[in-house]
Structure formats: structure tokens, C-alpha cells
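Please review this one.

:::
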Amino acid sequence: MKMITAIIKPFKLDDVRDGLAEAGIFGMTVTEVRGFGRQKGHAELYRGAEYVVDFLPKLKLEVAVADEHEERVIEAILKATASGKIGDGKIFVHDLDTVIRIRTGERDEHAL
């Protein structure tokens, strides 16, 4: 099993959700986060004063899948988010040892 974590621009969420649904993946966790990479923030003007926004708003998506769905999920996220511009985000893939559904006690792929 794999845990796929993606950091994306907030306005891309609906496109990612639609892409994952087309790929047959319906569960994910979304967290609002802030951060920066090569994009390094930007300057904004507020009431006549300029200030630097170092940490940009992003969304962190987490999707737990069986090994055979890993590439399908990655491709769906890439297709929905890649613009070729700086700040598109990142995808991280981690091995997932155990999953337990609390309600039923099911384990591993049965709990996904």
C-alpha cells in the first residue's frame, strides 16, 4: 500500500478530485497548509503599504491506495495540476505498512 501526499495550489482541488474520481479513487484527506519552495512567496500591496508574503497558501492532499493504483493516482494529480509554471507543487509517495478502519476493525487493503 502507498500513501500519496501532494502539495497543490488551492484552486486545483476540484480538478484533482474529478481526475481521481475518473481513476476510480474516491477517498482523500485535504488540509490547508502554507509554505514555499522555489516560488519564494511574493509581494502584495495592502492599504498603500507593500509587504512580502513568504508562505503561500497551498493544499495538502493525502490519498491511501493499494500498490496497483499508485501510478493511476499520480497521473491523475499530474494531469490536473501541471501548468509548467513554478509553484505547481510536489507529490510524495510513501510506503504504508498498516491501515485499520476504526468502525469495523478491517485491516490493510480491506480498510482502504
Q: What stands out?
A: The chain has one domain: 2-111.
